[in-house]
Amino acid sequence: MTEQYKIFEENLTGTAQGNPYTDIWLKAAFKNDSETVEVNGFYCGDGNYRVRFMPAEPGTWTAVTRSNDPMLNGRRLVCECTPASEGNHGRVLRKDEVYPQSACTEEDRFHFSYEDGSRFQPFGTTCYAWINQPGDIQEQTLETLKSSCFNKVRMCIFPKFYTYNTADPEFYAFEGNEAEGFDHTRFNPVFWDNLEKRIRQLDELGIEADLILLHPYDKWGFAKMDRETDVFYLKYAVDRLCHFKNVWWALANEFDLLPWKSVEDWELYARTVMCRDSYGHLRSIHNCVKLYDHTRPWITHVSIQRIDVYKTAEAVSEWRQEYQKPVVVDECAYEGNINFGWGNITGEEMTRRFWEGCIRGGYLSHGEVYVQHEQIWWSHGGKLHGTCPERIAFLKGIMEDVPEGAAPLKLTPENHEANWDVPCLCREEDHSYYLYYFGFFQPAFRTYELPEGCSYEIELIDTWDMTVEKLPGTYAGSVRIELPQKQYMAVRMRKVC
Amino acid sequence: MTEQYKIFEENLTGTAQGNPYTDIWLKAAFKNDSETVEVNGFYCGDGNYRVRFMPAEPGTWTAVTRSNDPMLNGRRLVCECTPASEGNHGRVLRKDEVYPQSACTEEDRFHFSYEDGSRFQPFGTTCYAWINQPGDIQEQTLETLKSSCFNKVRMCIFPKFYTYNTADPEFYAFEGNEAEGFDHTRFNPVFWDNLEKRIRQLDELGIEADLILLHPYDKWGFAKMDRETDVFYLKYAVDRLCHFKNVWWALANEFDLLPWKSVEDWELYARTVMCRDSYGHLRSIHNCVKLYDHTRPWITHVSIQRIDVYKTAEAVSEWRQEYQKPVVVDECAYEGNINFGWGNITGEEMTRRFWEGCIRGGYLSHGEVYVQHEQIWWSHGGKLHGTCPERIAFLKGIMEDVPEGAAPLKLTPENHEANWDVPCLCREEDHSYYLYYFGFFQPAFRTYELPEGCSYEIELIDTWDMTVEKLPGTYAGSVRIELPQKQYMAVRMRKVC
Predict the structure, then answer these.
(1) Can you name the residues that pair with B491 across neighbouring β-strands?
(2) Is residue B47 exposed (0-12), middle (13-18) or buried (19+ Cβ within 10 Å)?
(3) Read out DSSP for B67-109?
(4) Which residues partner with B208 through β-bridges?
(5) Looking at chain B, which residue has its C-alpha nearest residue A289?
(6) Whether A420 and B308 lie within 8 Å, measured CB to CB
(7) Between chains, do A444 and B420 touch, taking CB under 8 Å as contact?
(8) Could you read off the pLDDT tens digit of each residue along chain B, which spans 497 residues?
(9) Are A402 and A433 in contact (CB under 8 A)?
(10) By C-alpha distance, which of B305, B312, B267, B313 is closest to B287?
(11) C-alpha distance from B290 to closest chain A C-alpha (Å)
């Protein structure tokens, strides 16, 4: 029995002659009463082949395999699917893909949803090379994630070669090694088995695996494979991994630092991923300095590295306007003390960027680079040492509590004077909810003209000290709220009648 | 005897009949051996007229008055001018106006100079309505300024009506009062005498008076005078005040909040000021949300209010590039705890903005709005309570020590990777000086590739604690500097051989 949104898997035995990775194809079309899902099986060494399928509906799904290897052809597969158990919500998609258009508001295009309709608000973190660390460190990373609030991890498939990251991994995606060279036509099953184990473990923790398929930080040649090899690799990766409900595809980290790959290459790679992914997982492509054209229809959401050193999460408003898609600021700099400007902001500033971006209707990813530790989270995983993760957890709680349909306050000539300085997330249509964030401002008070005929409970939120203080009574009309003259405060108003 | 750059003044008696403000004109052309300076005299009530002249060269200057009042016509005036005494450097102008073109570098267009060639780096503050407060407060403001580092004050001629500013002043520029109306054809000599006294007192403190000629915060009608009245007022103001060497003309504060005045109006007002000002004092026009076209030739320097809430002094680089003039960020928000976002940043953030702007080759003005005090500095003057003024004084000392010719490091493809994150003020041509400012970054160390063949002394500057720590020895080649992992640090390098 296979649980809905989990993986049905059938192991088959076929030829081990020649190079099955290049020579053998294997397909199956899973059908229930109303739908057909075509999947690609894949070779995993020693004459072993595997067909996987993620059923999105309970019931019986059947398939008959097709292959150019007679041993793999014509095999009948039956997947008996049981309804999803509690906590299993399926893939994360764009909210406007999950809900029918008639049920979608203008705001929904900027947000995500699990495919069962549950809300998903990404609070990501970054551990680029965690699966390429020693096994005990990988286990430690999982332990850390387990007790953190993060629900998305940005992670590479290929190992990383960069400052503080010079060790060779134990296993590579391809057969071979650095000294003797890699065989780009044969994959290393040990590597892929471990990667899948880690993706599965993340899923058990409710964490999305934002898989970075290509990246520039390389000394092994994986960043400079030719177009055919890239496509060959992408097909294999997607054939194997697309069945995990918690997978997102990041075509690249910092695509613009791979200048030998053209826009035509990336577009081909995007088509390849889409064509081989039976389930339409989320797709993005991340930048260093130059943004990819994020209006391209295959890009489901903006995965952005802030370009400006100063204006980071604040630009969420502009990016939403420009791209009309969910905006995930996957790099807004990291908390830490590294020598580079991308990795030495304070926990306060990181927390501020998270709040600022969330209030503006975007999402952010965390990262941490404290150089004094043997493992640096942003790349190795290991342990967290910073001050912002618990504040991000606090923010996540506040955001989970934001009513559906809330949107950043639209500035108009009429409301500009009262709102130009402080962003606000609110439900304007019924005036039921307002969440103002003051960032680095330290006002002694603030005045509000509350909507006519409405009465509110008001809370002061100290986003750094992580306290919520309900002010006595209820409020209506012209209101003056005393504030503690310190940075990082928020005010929440909820309509009571 | 009149000291060079100070005011020669001759009082004359003429008619008191009719309205001398509108009816009588009085001119004099002061000549020495090589030059003629035409000035306008002005009426100051009770049949008293005054001719003023600021000699820019020692020696004998003579003039014969001309007037449509026979009593004022044909009077011979002699100004015996002695050389400037110590500390008297004359007007502040653009550096490329003071130095011959052949002696100017590309950078000089972004800076100021006294007319005697001494350096002037503006560190301004804002006391909009200080001359419209009770006399004892005006005295207190001067006392405060005396012990501060500020060398420019932004101040209005007309009183200010705005939140926290609702009191009527004792005297107005025009005759009349609010109840009975103002006579826009007659000026009140008591007001102008006091204004001049205050400008003179500022000059004695070495402070430039950045005079705001028009502004929107008004209940008395001065913001809504018609074009002819504006011109009449501007002529009188300039005729009286242009002889003070420490005067700058700010045509408006927030010109865009006076939408009933057209671009044609402002251009006319600019021509009027230029035509009546015998000495070519600095001229600017300040914005709220929309910038005036700062490429206009009459604008000597950019007097800007930051538009973006987040990116403020950092934009100096862009504004320099765009306007090719000195950039003075006259409003980058103020230290304080007011309810409005323009006046509730911390002293730390204000200090950071000052450093950031200075390192980028611009200048900033300070302001302070702590609501718990009876006088709020930004408008009333009085006392300073904030934490940034002493840090600005510290910065001023650091900036005075920057060698002539230093300029912001130009980012190139070659130096980008090492410098994208941290701005640097330096002398690139002889590699003699580098001043790096880390702002909100908190690196544990930084590495530098020092220019070949040069050896440096290196100092750590804590811009908040106001300390300068010289590191032992000298440095050459590849260098790693340990840093204290805190915000607001700077590194200064000076070539020793």
Answers:
(1) B436, B460
(2) middle
(3) ESSTTTTT-EEEEEEEPPPTT----EEEHHHHS-GGG--GGGG
(4) B152
(5) B420
(6) no
(7) no
(8) 999 999 999 999 999 999 999 999 999 999 999 999 999 999 999 999 999 999 999 999 999 999 999 999 999 999 999 999 999 999 999 999 999 999 999 999 999 999 999 999 999 999 999 999 999 999 999 999 999 999 999 999 999 999 999 999 999 999 999 999 999 999 999 999 999 999 999 999 999 999 999 999 999 999 999 999 999 999 999 999 999 999 999 999 999 999 999 999 999 999 999 999 999 999 999 999 999 999 999 999 999 999 999 999 999 999 999 999 999 999 999 999 999 999 999 999 999 999 999 999 999 999 999 999 999 999 999 999 999 999 999 999 999 999 999 999 999 999 999 999 999 999 999 999 999 999 999 999 999 999 999 999 999 999 999 999 999 999 999 999 999 999 999 999 999 99
(9) yes
(10) B305
(11) 14
Between chains, do B442 and A341 touch, taking CB under 8 Å as contact? no
Tokens of A325: 């898609």
Choose among B340, B346, B445: nearest Cβ to A442. Answer: B346
- Contact between B115 and B98 under an 8 Å Cβ cutoff? The reply is yes
B→A interface, C-beta within 8 Å: 308-311, 314, 337-342, 344-346, 349, 371-372, 420-422, 440-447, 485, 487
A142's tokens: 């999982």
Do the chains contact at A310 and B309, CB–CB below 8 Å? no
Nearest to A349 among B314, B420, B440 (CB): B440
Specify the DSSP class assigned to residue B289. Answer: S
Name the strand (E) or helix (H) holding B125: strand B123-126
Query: What does each C-alpha distance from B11 to B26, B44, B47, B50 come to in angstroms?
Result: 12, 10, 10, 5
Please give the sequence-ordered ranges of beta strands (E in DSSP) within B337-472, or none if there are none.
363-365, 368-369, 407-408, 424-427, 433-437, 445-449, 456-462, 467-470
How many angstroms separate the CA of residue A222 from the nearest CA in chain B? 23
Mutation target among A339, A351, A368 for the B interface, most CBs of B within 10 A: A339
Asked whether the beta carbons of B55 and B243 are under 8 A apart, the reply is no
B23: three-class secondary structure by DSSP: helix
Decide if B341 and A485 are in contact by the 8 Å CB cutoff.
Answer: no
Residues A205, A220: Cα–Cα separation, whole Å: 32
Q: Could A421 and B309 be called an inter-chain contact, meaning their C-beta atoms sit closer than 8 Å? A: yes
- Domains, chain B, ordered by start: 2-82 (2.60.40.10), 121-400 (3.20.20.80), 422-495 (2.60.40.3950)
Contacts of B485 in chain A (CB under 8 A): 337
CB-CB neighbors (< 8 A) of A314 in chain B:
309-310
Contacts of residue A397, defined as CB under 8 A and 6 or more positions apart, other chains included, come to: none
Cβ pair B421:A445 closer than 8 A: no
Among A302, A241, A298, A292, which residue's Cα sits nearest to residue A269?
Answer: A298
Testing the interface with A: which of B254, B305, B340 to mutate, by most A Cβ within 10 A?
Answer: B340
Q: Which of A243, A213, A248 is nearest to A328 (CA)?
A: A248
